[in-house]
Amino acid sequence: MDILIVEDNEELGQLIFDFLRNSGYSADWVKSAENALENISKENYKLLLLDVMLPGQDGFAALSKIRKEHNMPVLMMSARTDDDSKILGMETGADDYIGKPFSIPLLVSKIKALLRRAYPDSENEVLSYKNLKIDVSARSVFMDGKSLEITGKEFDILVYLMKHAGKVVDKNELFDEVWGYYSETEMNSLNVYIRWLREKIEKDPKEPELIKTVWRVGYKFGE
């Protein structure tokens, strides 16, 4: 199954469901976080489309539970477009955030971008640099043979930087590649994720050797 839609608004949920099915995606639609958790325990979805304001348990609480066991891309939908809500969604584990009301073509564009980044065409692509190794298709990261908990946007950023190892990657280029050109996420989110990544892969995050900052330009991975 491709996509699980979690939306309690009957009209919007039906619209999204019909459009995705007509676009060639397989999809399930539930109207509560509780039903979403039940579905996810039984079915492997490629992407979760999750509303924030739900009856009973809200989307943030549900995502917090989901992220303990699952690593599929998550696109959150909400009429709450203030910075605090977006930051909470990001910190809880959302990969992208779209504010309501939104156009269906924009929603589908974001879905396609998330799926493209999460499931690259190359089935057995492996990236490595010194003692760091990434299995792209499995979305797994290893340091000295030990698995690291690097998921979501952190994983996408690391893959893009490693694919361009030795080159300076412009901040805007990296942001657009990982979040998408039309993302409503603030550029400062990139700095947060870079900091989190360094805490996981650098010997000394304050003196990074792998992900280096290039002043006023962006970042450079490796030598």
Give the helix/strand layout.
Blueprint: E1 3-6, H1 10-22, E2 27-30, H2 33-42, E3 47-51, H3 59-66, E4 74-78, H4 83-92, E5 96-99, H5 104-118, E6 126-129, E7 132-135, E8 140-143, E9 146-148, H6 152-163, E10 168-170, H7 171-179, H8 188-201, E11 211-214, E12 218-221
Parallel strand pairs: 1-2, 1-3, 3-4, 4-5
Antiparallel strand pairs: 6-7, 7-8, 8-9, 10-12, 11-12
Helix pairs in contact: 2-3, 6-7, 6-8
Task: Describe this protein with a few key phrases.
223 residues; Rossmann fold; Arc Repressor Mutant, subunit A; 2 domains; 5-stranded parallel beta sheet; 4-stranded antiparallel beta sheet; 12 strands; globular
In the sheet with the most strands, the strands line up as: 2-1-3-4-5
Q: Which class of secondary structure composition applies to the elements?
A: alpha/beta
Which architecture of the largest domain does the CATH hierarchy give at level 2?
A: 3-Layer(aba) Sandwich
The radius of gyration is 18 Å
Quick one: how many beta strands?
Answer: 12
Share of β-strand residues: 15-25%
CATH superfamily of the largest domain: Response regulator
CATH class of the largest domain: Alpha Beta
Query: Which spans of ≥5 residues are poorly predicted at pLDDT below 50?
Result: none
The chain-level mean pLDDT equals 87
Q: Give the SSE string.
A: EHEHEHEHEHEEEEHEHHEE
Rounded to the nearest angstrom, the distance between the terminal CA atoms is 41 Å
How many helical stretches?
Answer: 8
The residue fraction in helices comes out at 40-55%
CATH topology of the largest domain: Rossmann fold
What oligomeric state best describes the polypeptide chains here?
single chain
